[in-house]
Amino acid sequence: MLLRNAFEKKRFLRSDLLKTTVLGVGLALVSGPGMAQVVPSEEAAEGSFSEAPYSPYANRDFPMFPLWGETHLHTGLSLDAGAFGNILGPDDAWRFAKGEQVMSSTGQPVKLSRPLDWMVLTDHTDLMGFAPDLQAGKPGVLADPKGREWYEGYKKGGAEAGKTAFDLITNFSQMTLPELLLENYSPGADPYAFTWEKIVDAAETHNDPGRFSAFIGFEWTSVPKGFNLHRNVMLRDGATRALQMVPPVTQPPYGDTDPFHLWNWLEEYQEKTGGRAVAFAHNGNLSNGWMFPTEDTYHGGKVDKEYAELRAKWEPHYEITQIKGDGEAHPYLSPNDEFADYENWDVGNLDLTEVKTEGMLGGEYAREALKRGLALEKQLGVNPYKFGLGGATDSHTALTTAEEENFFSKSVSVEPSPTRIEHPFIESALGRIDGHMLVASGYTAVWATENTRSAIFDAFKRRETYATTGPRIGLRFFGGWEFDEDDLRNRNPAVIGYSKGVPMGSDLRPTEGEGAPSFLLVALRDPIGANLDRMQVVKGWMDAEGALHEKVFDVVWSGDRTPDAEGKLPAVGNTVDIESASWSNTIGASELTTVWTDPEFDTSEPAFYYVRALEIPTPRWVLYDKVRYGIELPEDAVLIHQERAYSSPIWYTPKEG
User: Fold this and answer.
1) CB 182 within 8 A of CB 251
2) Tens digit of each residue's pLDDT (9 = 90 or more) over 497-533
3) Are 389 and 366 spatial neighbours (Cβ–Cβ below 8 Å)?
4) Measured by CB atoms within 10 angstroms of the end CB, which terminus of the chain is less buried, N or C?
């Protein structure tokens, strides 16, 4: 039976050859001689459709709660992590993420406050298998003089082991690794293949659909001349597909640092296996301007339509915050944003072999990339920088700790101790990144319909994700054309949000009217964290002359504060107790909600909008260390800050013509 326009016309068209039941309610329309159609009464037609259920949670098919996870973690299988003394493997990392207590590589018991819901384990692909063999002094390492030198330095421990690790990393970034070691630990070699199998098998063991999703993944570590162009790869699939190929590398002659090399691998993977994969770039702040190019690429290519199409296809997500610096904004690029100066690393490239200049910053930060994407879409017809946002730790300890009071740092060499801030993270003749500058960030929240690989992966593809610097702030962000203040009276904002608009990561639906878009914003504090200060909408747009602009709007805040004559909202205040490294939730709000309409909207200008939700000030990990160990901190060490969440953007594109 064919059902057409039933809600409008309330009639059914039928063939006299069919006998059917309408929507399972037992109403049979039986044909008779000469009977072409039956037109039931209005009451009968209405009775054919079920009413909304009493339970507001029944029949829902949209995401109802965020799933918290990690997209960037290294075990002792990674080249650099193992060289720094990480002896934990994938099994330890998975158990820890699922909430179990484990022993760190330095012999310290550690546990998360709450388990994660999912994780992508991303050990480096280059020299896969080398680190465990270095620690064990295997023949494949000792056969080369440089390998033997590194092994002897590693065994000495302490400062000598640290020097050895940095020497190894420098040789990697400058592409001067010994040929024999490359041959022994690259695709085609047994240690490489066996290590990949170990990674895949561990993920399969710990994947528990409905409770915990363990993703197979890796980090493709492109760092030509120290410019960070890394990507993490996340597979939607299990072992059957993942083991049909081995991951790509960047060291020649076995691989290449050009992203096209990775994109070609992703294409081949999907064609060969029938699986699915995506890549996440991160730490553009250490690329010295090369992460988000607009004309020329580092590898001598052009930012043309092919580049834009491939990057848009394979990289729908960007890691905006992590241990090597927050990557949302920079004060030089956003001088009118009082919160842009947050955990910035702007000294130089990854190994500090080239100093940063102001002209490089535009190609490094996510907000600027989102703006540049608008211009490139106008020029090429495709926006290569249309990505969702997430956070990660990039921890090389196998421990995904993003909470400030539970921060186990970047590498085993600086796990918790009274002296860990004394070790510079990176140091060269050109500058240094001090130990107290390490960032505890971060996590990714995913709005997925269920806790499975497929559902979470699909959420990444549609960009329905958001980042936090560590706290598990609940954040909803919907855009549409009809939201109003009455929508705030509903305690189920998602019902309104999905029915009247689109969620974060989406394009605004086309409109025939001339009105401005409206946005529904909801934020809930972390249940065991700090109250909220405010929510802001960050807008970027391109005007008719092609100039790019941005503006930050304070849209809802706690307390009875009033913006001054220039529109600046007073600070929320500070309850941090420096002597005890604690704070009180006597200021701020447990939740913030609002409907906001863009007061400066122009229908002819393409734009994007995303939410930044800020907590009240809380202690940084260095203050916890000061209290724990009684240590003196450098004068420039930041003791407190305002942690935050970043939603994925919502885009507006003018209608053609």
Assistant:
1) yes
2) 999 999 999 999 998 778 999 999 999 999 999 999 9
3) yes
4) C
